[in-house]
From TrEMBL:
GO annotation terms (biological process): glutamyl-tRNA aminoacylation
SUPFAM superfamilies per record: An anticodon-binding domain of class I aminoacyl-tRNA synthetases (SSF48163), Nucleotidylyl transferase (SSF52374)
Organism: Meridianimarinicoccus roseus
Record function comment: Catalyzes the attachment of glutamate to tRNA(Glu) in a two-step reaction: glutamate is first activated by ATP to form Glu-AMP and then transferred to the acceptor end of tRNA(Glu).
Similarity annotation: Belongs to the class-I aminoacyl-tRNA synthetase family. Glutamate--tRNA ligase type 1 subfamily.
GO cellular component, one term: cytosol
Residue span(s) of domain Glutamyl/glutaminyl-tRNA synthetase class Ib catalytic: 5-307
Name this polypeptide is given: Glutamate--tRNA ligase
Gene behind the chain: gltX
EC primary class: ligase
List of residues binding ATP: 243
Listed Pfam families: Anticodon_2, tRNA-synt_1c
Amino acid sequence: MTDHQVVTRFAPSPTGFLHIGGARTALFNWLYARGRGGRFLLRIEDTDRARSTPEATQAIRDGLAWLGLDHDGDAVSQADRAPRHAEIAHQMLAAGTAFKCFATQEEIAAFREAAKAEGRSSLYRSPWRDADPADHPDAPFVVRLKAPIEGETVIADRVQGDVTMRNDQLDDMVILRSDGTPTYMLAVVVDDHDMGVTHVIRGDDHLVNAARQMLVYRAMGWDVPVWAHIPLIHGPDGKKLSKRHGALGVEEYRAMGYPVEGLRNYLTRLGWSHGDDEVFTTEQALEWFDLDGIGKAPARFDFKKLENVSGQHIAMAEDAALLHEIEGFLAATGAPDLTPAQRSGLTDALYCLKDRAKTIPQLLEKGHFVLASRPLEPDDAARKALDSVSRGILRELTPHLQTANWQRNDLEEAVGAVAEAHDTKLGKLAGPLRAALAGRSVSPSVFDMMLVIGREETLARLADATE
């Protein structure tokens, strides 16, 4: 198989949001296809009509769009393809690779109970498997696949290695229900075949399904795709990731203010590795990603690590891209848009905000000094720093700043001289100065703030604080 033929797919059930585990599966499929000039397709497995809503489907599309995982062509609806799935079941009936089973639910339950009582396998074997069609009653039936009874089915998996299932452990699974609707097991195979999927990369909770799905491929004489079953994501305690570990949906991570590049990097690294590389760009991930780098053990989700990776991506980001991300974050969380003045102030300030912020809210908190307008409302810590002694020193500093050259060295000199005159350290004066300029006790350096907001605004804020 040549590289340009790679076709992968992401096939979520629309249950309300894009789960973080699903997001990683989509990302692995996207990276594998895009890195090889292949196609990445989206299929919505919406056959469960009760749970599948347009809103849920939209939430999945929104999550993929925010993550930058674009798919080729239109999304396929599995429910819309039910007639095609049924057509294949009828082809299998005609070919003798499937059969009509007239057993009732009661008969199957009675068989299972008797088998359990006698300590036999409760895998249902239908008496109709080899029945003469002349003996078929005029009654409802399901269509079952004729599974091989002897031998083995080997799943050649690119992550798990060869996984062997004994065929006597595989039942004659139902592919068409008595109401004529196809089962999930049939629908998945028909869709993957018709969509030309060459590589099925999905959670290892589907590993057993692969053995049963291979029987459909074989019955139809179709090429079996390359399987890659990836371990699930666990919480820090080693248990399957769930609500109690924290956020589950991608939109929650967006609302917490993780930059998309950081989240994408973290998810790529979750269960896959390339040497010791922890922080990398999407371009590098596209170049490096392969199935051999996926580990067999479940990956553990670690918020500290995510924060660390996110912080490095904020620090590495181009200003324009970061500003775009900030505006997207504000829109997604329902916060007001930036005013033109705030936008230009933030643009000027980004150089001194990026280095230690791990999330966008942290960056905005550090940038409070350019986002707020006079008179600033100081927080409690800032108010404490502005006692009468400090205010007196700031009054004294004002004329020095009125005449200083507005450059870092000159500003440092002016503030240093006033600190020296009061026999105090520069750091001691930085607290009240920070409180006056930012209204906060945490901010960039006071000299960065002065340079960003300029002489006029600096003096006006000092005047407000010392009144």
